[in-house]
Automatic annotation (TrEMBL):
Pfam families named among the record's database cross-references: Chlor_dismutase
UniProt signal peptide: none
Gene Ontology molecular function terms on file: heme binding; metal ion binding; oxidoreductase activity
InterPro entries found in the cross-reference section: ChdC/CLD (IPR010644), Dimeric_a/b-barrel (IPR011008)
PANTHER family (alphabetical): COPROHEME DECARBOXYLASE, HEME-DEPENDENT PEROXIDASE YWFI-RELATED
UniProt entry tagged with the keyword Metal-binding: yes
This protein's record includes keyword DNA-binding: no
SUPFAM superfamilies, sorted: Dimeric alpha+beta barrel
Name under which the protein is recorded: Unannotated protein
Keywords: Heme, Iron, Metal-binding
Amino acid sequence: MDTVEASSGWGVLHLFYDVDLAPNSVGGGSRIAKAISDFTAEAPHQALTFVVLGHKAALGVMAIGPDWARLQRLQHQLNQAPLIPTWSYLSLTEASEYAMTENDERERLRNEESVTDPAEVKTRIEAWNERIEHYREQRIHPQLPTRSTISFYPMSKRRTGADNWYALPFAQRKELMMGHATVGRRYAGRVTQLITGSTGLDDWEWGVTLFSDDPAALKDIVAEMRFDEVSVRYGEFGPFVTGLVLDPAEALRRVGIDE
């Protein structure tokens, strides 16, 4: 099949499985490992495996890349292995429509740091542009981090009664989201966040994937954001799945799949 690529962004698949331990499943581990290895060999496609804590699934695979046909082929190959699908989620990497602009940063420098000297403003804006370009590139074409734990959940914005997010003017939504993002930035270095869009692709509007070496940080960032107005009034959340990120061979061994 020819490649299928979005005009902007990469496809993201979260796949969750239980394990088929029937006698005829012996040797399935090598098929799973090869499917993932072949997928990641086709750069820039990436994948990580994790064992799930709790009974929502045993094994998770997060796969990301530009070619949706290649993502589907990986999904099909895993379905031929001794794995029983329990859930999946499809989304697309995207830039935030509420991202700060250069004018927003100029205003912030003036109002929050009293920076008005033209030469200093110019220097600060140049540095800001470099940082924001890296940030935007990481959102559209992310490199999956090497952290020991992962948490995934879908979410949407409420659209009922007085708490209809989409009835708010854009400027008000942007102001609220900038405050929401401030909470997330406090966890820089502790938690890596990947927020992907899924409106029209799956049952919720976004997928949120959090990575950290500290499981407590996964809880803390979500708990703190729950008190932000964006979440208090407008946030609706799906199921949370949390796991330990491992290389494929170790993940398969942990869930009892032989090579």
